Amino acid sequence: MEGPIATWYAKNTGRDLTRFRRMAATIAALAPAGSRILEVAPGPGYGAIELARAGSYRVTGLDVSESFVRIARENARAAGVDVDFRHGNASAMPFPEASFDVIVCTAAFKNFTDPVGALNECERVLAPGGCALIYDLRKDASLEEIAAEVRGMGLSPLNAWMTNWTFRTVLLRRAYTRDVLEAMVTRSRFGRGEIRLDGIAFELRLSKPPAAGTFLRSAASA
């Protein structure tokens, strides 16, 4: 998204920050203080900002939209938090290996042109022992479930209609079935993952094994 569309999206999603705060709380329960956290495709940056508020983390956001990077930086300044928002592609991340302890991606995975490549990049930049969480729309979410979700967003009638229309005609078509998602994970460098259902969305949890000898070193120093 670029230009006016990105601005419209930012205004609509910023009306209700509940899901971003819930996501930040989930990450905060997993990540110790000082963790390096990457949000892939943060859009206007609301999730990354909530992560920065949730603890003493080093938070980075990577988005392919230059408009979203600009908007996210403005939102972070207004919120008084330090988040490093950068422009870049999920399937070719501008980071060295093992740069992050936790990676999160919300409502964007279905839009990636190279989803397996994005999974591979997540695995590459994830530190040993780290985890990645991907949240997105379920392909089998019903129109009734979607309508109920939109009603809870507190949108104006026109924006609610447009959001419902976008879900029905665009987002559901791009969404993945469980079988397709599992197949992509199997083909990726992760090899396996855990899928949980949450309302109209799914949560895909992926992990990278600790480096060899990590447990032995920790036990010896205990």
Secondary structure layout:
Blueprint: H1 3-13, H2 18-30, E1 36-40, H3 46-54, E2 58-63, H4 66-79, E3 83-87, E4 100-106, H5 115-125, E5 126-137, H6 143-151, H7 157-174, H8 178-187, E6 194-198, E7 201-207, H9 214-221
Parallel strand pairs: 1-2, 1-4, 2-3, 4-5
Antiparallel strand pairs: 5-7, 6-7
Helix pairs in contact: 2-3, 6-7
Describe the structure using short key phrases.
single chain, 222 residues, alpha/beta, Rossmann fold, 7-stranded mixed sheet, 9 helices, 7 strands, 46% helix, disordered C terminus
How would you portray this structure in words?
Helices cover 46% and strands 21% of the residues. The chain contains 9 helices and 7 strands, in the order ααβαβαββαβαααββα. The N and C termini lie far apart (50 Å). With 222 residues, the chain is α/β, with parallel strands linked by helices. The protein has a single domain, classed as Vaccinia Virus protein VP39 (Rossmann fold, 3-Layer(aba) Sandwich), CATH 3.40.50.150. A 7-stranded mixed beta sheet has the order 3-2-1-4-5-7-6. Helix 2 (18-30) crosses helix 3 (46-54) and helix 6 crosses helix 7.
